[in-house]
Amino acid sequence: MSVPRYWREIPERSRLEASKCATCGNVIYPNRARCAKCGSDSIEPYRLPERGKLLTFTVVRNPPRGFEKMAPFVLGIIELEDGSRLMTQITDVMPGEVTIGMPLEAVLRKVSEDGDSGIIEYAIKFRPTF
Could you say which architecture CATH assigns to the domain 49-130? Predict the structure, then answer.
């Protein structure tokens, strides 16, 4: 299997796949072997919803090394339709147009590339649905 294909097939990177504790119902993202809430190792696969709303956000104007070309970009905390929350990048919108409570949906977008002819890495980001 090629390296790019292997990278794309990691469930947490290209499909909002998480885990759910069979004991207490806690949703775990990213996946872990044990529930952080109750300590159980009775974990089941769980598909996170692909829609939610923005709870809060920040605009990153001075990004870490390797992300300079993306600046400015928006990071937000999203509450998904099932009540789960995650932090992710908001895409396809100008920073000044982002508002708390805006509806969002998951999309697969480029994150980085390893040089001019290297591997292009993709991940889940969220975009407005208006």
Answer: Beta Barrel (2.40)
